[in-house]
């Protein structure tokens, strides 16, 4: 037994053993993944069978549609099916219009087709949600491009029958959508309850790393928040899942809105932690009162995630949190009372008064953080236990990047135009297939942030499906004479594709495999692809399409990670100027949301490969978010009008300097940094002699925000210094 144990351990540690371990998705799948592959295989074969029964001209498009919309959960499948149907209608209308506009003008048709694909990619990039395959609003535009390509390129060769061709293609797509939706519904049970449980699990998954990180901060690790970009990116992904749970639960409640508000509260909690970390840079902030409150808060945060899984424990959690909030307010009031006692009994001990002030500010910000947590937990409870006659609404937010949308549009349009020119000039008999596949690939991948990387994985899947389809066409299909036998032969190869789609490491290759399997095999009622030449004439355009798209994505407007980061830095500086200058600036949750989107994009552009450069930029994005929130807090203080006139002038001067913030430092200190330090010094002098309680409170709030801004400008000068073209050489 010991020898067997030793052999197994050595096998698992070897290269071959490691490779075998990575293939568990195939030979030892989870029940959920196996169920997904099985139900999707059944749905696609039913769609294919109905299409053959109805004697449709191109039945392979029906199972292809099933694989396009099938997802692991009911909510995802329904969301994707709805947007795919919408995209089909839009694509069909555009296709009919294009063919009717240029029936005998191939060059004009190619120009219009290229422009239409580019327009759909442009619109898709601007729709709510991240640029990922999980964004099904964007998938609606992808489906429009897909439908436009297959209808218009079939119809341009026979424009007199464009309406019949359009209706036929729409029938295949609708048939695939209906089959997948009906079959997937049969595999679901207790859907509403499982969707509610998923909302709970999502929130616990979000609060767990947040509580751990904030606990480390309260334990004295000021840098704990600087390495938590993945946590913020996870929040964006979890927010996406709420929409799918809403679809599964139906429209009877507002659980999804409360869940979105709860996750937004987690992000706000994180932003309060960033402010607190900046204040903790001064050792004077950590006095005896602070130490007691921080220790109690840390213990509470670390135990919170596990306690939230038990609904009966929620009232006790809120009671303990209310006690901590009350204690923080009492401690902050005690610090303020000690300050007032000092300043009303001169001479003032400046050192002692400064220590009390710093501690009071830290305690106050910790209290704000606990208040944010309480608000978030209340929203979480409302999502777990629906409220009768609830009218709460928390909309899905989006932050548009017009530059990215323009680049995606131009990339798709140019790829389509070049492919069309190749078709026209060469008169290649299979050129229409080539152009159709280029349209499909551009519709699917041009909106992604790393299309070249995605198409490379897609190429691997194409090679695999070509080999499998060749085996099916040459050896299997000639021996089959009934649909039942054909379905039995399709089951194992389709199951492999479904299992591969359930594995994150092979998902893009699996998409290509599942989409093109029935296209390459091409089962028909009255004929079969029996010879190698016919199969080659279908497979070769597909393979050339993948190679062509990979080449275009690397040649025309390729992804430039340095350029993406440089543009992001300029956008952050522009945002800070706008927050200080505009009459109606962004709201705090907008600043948090757009910062999370930037971190997600940074991580996407490097494919998860972290390094000192990316870490520095992620820290810079966090710093920009912290400064932005502090500016908004300063503007709230100014709007209340309770600051003394000298303090108001100092804050206004600092905001005026920030409104011109370019990041180009002159001399040892930048002008914005110098203006912030001057405002801090001025408000410190005013605070030490202010005896009016309400004005003193406002001075302390403004001073805390100014200290946060000053600390961030000092600690992240390399990021904010835009005088160099890139930050990268500093760390390389």
Automatic annotation (TrEMBL):
Protein name in UniProt: FUSC family protein
Cellular localisation: Cell membrane
Originating species: Acetobacter sicerae
Topology within the bilayer: Multi-pass membrane protein
Segments crossing the lipid bilayer: 34-54, 83-101, 107-127, 169-189, 417-445, 457-476, 507-524, 536-556
Pfam family, one: FUSC
Record keywords: Cell membrane, Membrane, Transmembrane, Transmembrane helix, Transport
Protein origin, superkingdom: Bacteria
């Amino acid at each position: 037994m010991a020898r067997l144990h030793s052999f197994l351990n050595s096998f698992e540690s070897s290269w071959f053993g490691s490779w075998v371990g990575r293939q568990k998705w195939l030979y030892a799948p989870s029940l959920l993944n196996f169920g997904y592959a099985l139900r999707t295989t059944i749905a696609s074969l039913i769609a294919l069978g109905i299409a053959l029964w109805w004697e449709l001209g191109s039945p392979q498009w029906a199972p292809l549609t099933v694989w396009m919309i099938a997802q692991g959960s009911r909510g995802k499948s329904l969301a994707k099916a709805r947007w795919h149907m919408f995209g089909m209608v839009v694509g069909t209308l555009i296709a009919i219009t294009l063919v009717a506009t240029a029936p005998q003008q191939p060059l004009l048709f190619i120009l219009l087709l290229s422009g239409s694909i580019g327009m759909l990619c442009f619109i898709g990039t601007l729709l709510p949600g991240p640029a990922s395959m999980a964004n099904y609003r964007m998938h609606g535009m992808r489906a429009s491009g897909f439908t436009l390509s297959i209808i218009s390129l079939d119809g341009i060769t026979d424009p007199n029958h464009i309406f019949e061709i359009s209706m036929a293609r729409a029938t295949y797509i609708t048939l695939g959508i209906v089959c997948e939706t009906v079959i997937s519904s049969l595999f679901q049970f207790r859907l509403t309850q499982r969707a509610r449980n998923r909302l709970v699990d999502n929130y616990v998954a979000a609060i767990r790393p947040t509580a751990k990180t904030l606990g480390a901060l309260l334990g004295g690790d000021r840098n704990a928040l600087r390495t938590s970009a993945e946590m913020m990116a996870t929040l964006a992904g979890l927010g996406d899942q709420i929409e799918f749970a809403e679809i599964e639960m139906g429209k009877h409640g507002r659980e999804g809105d409360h869940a979105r508000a709860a996750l937004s509260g987690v992000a706000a909690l994180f932003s309060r932690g960033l402010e607190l970390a900046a204040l903790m840079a001064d050792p004077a902030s950590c006095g005896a009162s602070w130490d007691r409150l921080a220790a109690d808060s840390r213990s509470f945060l670390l135990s919170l995630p596990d306690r939230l899984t038990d609904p009966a424990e929620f009232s006790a959690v809120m009671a303990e949190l209310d006690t901590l909030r009350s204690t923080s307010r009492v401690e902050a009031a005690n610090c303020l009372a000690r300050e007032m006692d000092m300043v009303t009994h001169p001479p003032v001990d400046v050192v002692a008064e400064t220590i009390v002030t710093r501690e009071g500010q830290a305690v106050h910000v910790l209290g704000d953080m606990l208040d944010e947590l309480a608000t978030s937990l209340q929203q979480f409870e409302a999502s777990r236990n629906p409220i009768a006659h609830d009218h709460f609404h928390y909309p899905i937010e989006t932050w548009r990047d017009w530059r990215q949308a323009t680049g995606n549009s131009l990339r798709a349009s140019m790829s389509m135009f070049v492919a069309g020119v190749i078709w026209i000039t060469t008169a290649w008999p299979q050129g229409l297939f080539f152009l159709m596949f280029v349209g499909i690939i551009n519709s699917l991948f041009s909106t992604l942030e790393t299309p070249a990387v995605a198409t490379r994985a897609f190429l691997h899947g194409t090679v695999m499906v070509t080999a499998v389809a060749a085996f099916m066409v040459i050896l299997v299909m000639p021996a089959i004479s009934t649909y039942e036998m054909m379905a039995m032969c399709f089951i194992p190869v389709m199951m492999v594709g479904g299992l591969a789609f359930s594995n994150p490491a092979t998902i893009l290759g699996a998409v290509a495999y599942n989409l093109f399997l029935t296209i390459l095999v091409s089962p028909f009622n009255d004929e079969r692809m029996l010879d190698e030449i016919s199969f080659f004439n279908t497979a070769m355009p597909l393979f050339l399409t993948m190679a062509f798209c990979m080449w275009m994505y690397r040649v025309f407007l390729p992804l430039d990670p340095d350029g993406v980061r440089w543009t992001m830095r300029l956008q952050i500086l522009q945002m800070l100027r706008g927050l200080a200058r505009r009459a109606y600036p962004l709201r705090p949750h907008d600043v948090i949301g757009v910062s999370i989107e930037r971190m997600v994009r940074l991580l996407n552009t490097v494919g998860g490969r972290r390094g000192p450069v990316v870490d520095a930029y992620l820290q810079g994005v966090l710093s920009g978010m912290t400064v932005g929130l502090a500016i908004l807090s300063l503007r709230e203080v100014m709007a209340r009008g309770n600051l003394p006139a000298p303090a108001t002038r100092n804050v206004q001067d600092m905001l005026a300097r920030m409104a011109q913030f370019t990041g180009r430092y002159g001399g040892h200190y930048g002008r914005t940094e110098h203006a912030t330090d001057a405002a801090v010094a001025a408000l410190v002098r005013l605070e030490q002699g202010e005896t009016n309680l309400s004005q003193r409170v406002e001075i302390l709030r403004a001073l805390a925000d100014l200290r946060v801004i000053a600390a961030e400008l000092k600690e992240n000068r390399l990021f904010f210094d835009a005088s160099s073209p890139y930050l990268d050489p500093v760390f390389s």
